[in-house]
Amino acid sequence: MSTQVKPIHRCAWSEGDPLMRAYHDEEWGVPEYDSRALWEKLMLDGFQAGLSWSIILRKRDAFRDAFQGFDPAVVARLGAKDIARLVKNPGIVRSRAKIEATIGGARAYLKMADAGEEFSSFAWGMAGGKPIRNTGPVPAKTELSEKISVALKKRGFKFVGPVIVYAWMQATGIVNDHSAQCFRRNAVG
Fold this sequence. Notes:
Distance between the termini: 36 Å
CATH topology: Endonuclease III, domain 1
Oligomer: single chain
Structural class: mainly alpha
CATH architecture: Orthogonal Bundle
Order of helices and strands: HHHHHHHEHHEH
Strand order of the largest sheet: 1-2
Shape: globular
CATH superfamily: Hypothetical protein, domain 2
Radius of gyration: 17 Å
Largest sheet: 2 strands, parallel
């Protein structure tokens, strides 16, 4: 008797590109509670604005090198010479505005920490403390992503519009938007 292998169903966006498939299968939608990792992912989503996520994913290691492991304390100290160097770095997205937003984002992150506001508690607290499980069509933004966007902007973050924030919420598992048939839907929360 032959054994039939059941096909694995994934979210459609992850099919066709091995890197995107691995990202989907291993990272996307997994709840992230580490403040620094949440901040890094938000900064990368800011760089993604106007581009495809696959571009950022392919450059992620170069971003990590360029921004010294996305250590907010280090990134916050970057100055004009560093910005000039980063704008010339072919391994990353060379947008001065996005580079400056990342440095400003590090400063905002540290200001929150200095005020006793942990970034993870801030993000997860706004979402009710546990992953939001969506059903139906996947939106580009939600009322919650708009609320978080406003709160981030008030704290000094840039490139954190509601669409970027929603993509970040999906990536970090704050919201579970794996399709109903996707093998990861029940695995991530």
